[in-house]
Amino acid sequence: MAALAGLLVLLAVAALAFGRSTPGGLRDQGPVRTVTPPPVAQALWPALDATPAPTQPVTGAGDATQPPPQPVPDVTVPGQDVTAVDVRTVLAKDPAVTAEERTALGSCDNCEIRSPEFRDLTGDGRLSLIIAVITPGPVVLHVYTPAENRLLPVLRVQVQRTFSAATIGSDLWLYESTSLYVRTSSHYHWDGVRLVLLERKDEGLGVRPPTGEGPAQPSGAVKTAAPVGPSAVPTATPSAGAAVQPPRAPRPATPQITPTVSPEPKR
Questions:
Q1: Which of 113, 153, 193, 219: CA 20 to 30 A from 232?
Q2: CB burial class (10 A; 0-12, 13-18, 19+) of residue 82?
Q3: pTM of the full structure
Q4: pLDDT for 115-140, tens place per residue?
Q5: Beta bridge pairs of residue 44
């Protein structure tokens, strides 16, 4: 009986020892949460060379106070697949396309319709259609998104010929060199109706403008001409804090005394 009691005590002590977690030991906290990486910029038309050139800033940004966009007449999007839409048909049917843009549909000098790009700009998983129309004058960027087998124009903006573009997540970014030293960035975001301009800012390109051939002279600097001639005497400038001695009075000239010679007496 004594041996059996001792065995029970040893089993109880062992159960307490193994059941208690040791300080600093590893514990199972359950499954780890999935980490979502931040969105990365994806360039539009990356094969094109966007050489900076000084031009006017971007114009023609969308206005959220405009009425809701209307579908492009006589254009359908079966299955809401914009990749199957003919780009030239869309531009020919869109009433917002100007006559100058329509010249690019034919054959003209310095005209081009870039190959379309497709990105999710609404955040709903559906691709939008992005078209760049290059004319002899302006360059216009169009964005269309599908809605119930129709095509809605959600952005029309005039940009530079040397512009570049990218998407970060579902946002659209346009980059333009508005001078030799400044780049303008325009940020567009989907508001549920259209793409609206959230922010436009100017950024330095890291190149300092020329400052001239020589060092600039301070505007408040005054040049003093030194006296010229034999009477010019250099004047010492006293240092700061030094006592200034008053000018001494000129010494009177010492008169020259001529000795007087008395005649010898006659003998």
A1: 219
A2: buried
A3: 0.59
A4: 999 999 999 999 999 999 999 888 99
A5: 165
What are the structure tokens assigned to 89, written together? 């048909």
CA distances from 98 to 42, 91, 145, 191 (A): 29, 9, 20, 26
What CA–CA distances, in Å, run from 227 to 143, 232, 235, 237? Answer: 75, 6, 11, 16
Q: How far apart are CA 39 and CA 196, in angstroms?
A: 20
**14 phi and psi, to 5 degrees?**
-65, -40
Count other C-beta atoms under 10 Å from residue 189's C-beta. Answer: 15
Q: How far is CA 201 from CA 156, 173, 183, in A?
A: 19, 11, 8
**2/246: higher pLDDT:** 2
The neighbouring-strand residues paired with 183 are 177, 203
**72-76, 189-193, 204-208, 254-258: which range is least confident on average?**
254-258
Which pLDDT tens digit goes with each residue over 35-92?
Answer: 666 777 888 878 654 433 333 333 344 454 678 999 999 999 999 999 999 999 999 9
Average pLDDT over residues 239-265: 50
Q: In terms of residues, how long is the chain?
A: 267
Question: Other C-beta atoms within 10 Å of 77: how many?
Answer: 24
